[in-house]
Amino acid sequence: MKKTLPLCPLVLLFALSGPAIAGANTAQLKCTGSHAGEALTLVGDVPASIVEVDLKLSYRGQTVRLASPQAETSESTDFRRGIYRVEAVLPGSNRLQLQAKPKSIKYKGSMGGGKLNASFGAILKDAPEPFGSALKGAELSCTYAYEI
């Protein structure tokens, strides 16, 4: 028993210092901008395995909701390396893909530490219908907030 007790604090320290496990919590994403003189927003919860994704893209008075289980989602997040991408695919190849401009990412904290706040410029690589190609390439300013 004496041999295992000193390992417990090390295991706890390792668990708290590593990357967050997918599904541990959901981050809030808020992106705003304008395109062709009209307001454009993308807001909601980004993917997690336990909490369902719920994103809303609004433009010219119309809103498209990308929510589980209809939307299959993926997210790549590594702010230290300038990576952030979120994708939500609806049936029929109808999808949204948002990608951060790597050099624009500014962040504080870490997911492994339980709290992270980031801001970045992003580009809509793909937009779902009815927006489709009209929003392809639109630029947004985004904030990302994660906390356990």
Describe the structure.
- The protein is mainly β.
- Helix content is 7%, strand content 51%.
- Strands 1, 2, 3, 4, 5, 6, 7, 8, 9 and 10 form a ten-stranded antiparallel β-sheet that branches.
- The radius of gyration is 18 Å and the shape is globular.
- The relative contact order is 0.19.
What's this entry about, in short?
This protein is mainly β.
Q: Count of DSSP helices?
A: 1
Instruction: Measure the end-to-end span.
Output: 32 Å
Structural class: mainly beta
What is the 3D form?
globular
Percent of sequence in beta strands = over 45%
Question: Strand-and-helix sequence, N→C?
Answer: HEEEEEEEEEE
- Give start-end ranges of low-pLDDT stretches: 1-23
> How much helicity do the residues have?
under 10%
Mean pLDDT: 80
> Looking at the chains present, what oligomeric state does this protein adopt?
single chain
Radius of gyration: 18 Å
Main sheet properties: 10 strands, antiparallel
Number of strands: 10
